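Researcher: Here's the sequence for the chain we discussed earlier.
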Amino acid sequence: MLNFKLKLASLASALALAAGVAFAQNVPNYSTQGGSLWVVGGDIQTDAGQSLQSLGLLGTMPRIDSPADDFYLVAPASGTLVGLRAIANNAITTPTTISVSIAGVYVTGGSLTIPSLTGVVGVATPTAGNVVAAGQAIRVQTGGETNVSSTATIMLLLQRD
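Model: Thanks. This is the structure I predict for it:
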């Protein structure tokens, strides 16, 4: 089995990483190790040798005002999607929906609304159809309800098997 070291100063530093990069949740007192880390399968460990069980997949949706502008994230490990978070990066005029699907099937509970209020995070908790394999594509799609061009930061929470 492959072992990878992943160090993070905080969740805030993780949010600054490039789209689609796996990061650890709740791992205190670590600093980033230059560049992005892509892991497909294998084991991700802290310096203390602890395996990370929760991963966050980050991505920036290029536009949320067009339903044709969806994008994909790749699951770095097999597991279950247990959370979805999204926030518009600019003020929007109309709440906008974000939906997640795996292998062409929408995830039950995997749809949220990004509010039109600046700085408010949309939250969803997937309940079924939310199991992914390492390396599997996860589609993130917008409903395109807002008429304001904006990007959105998307975070999928993955509980590893």
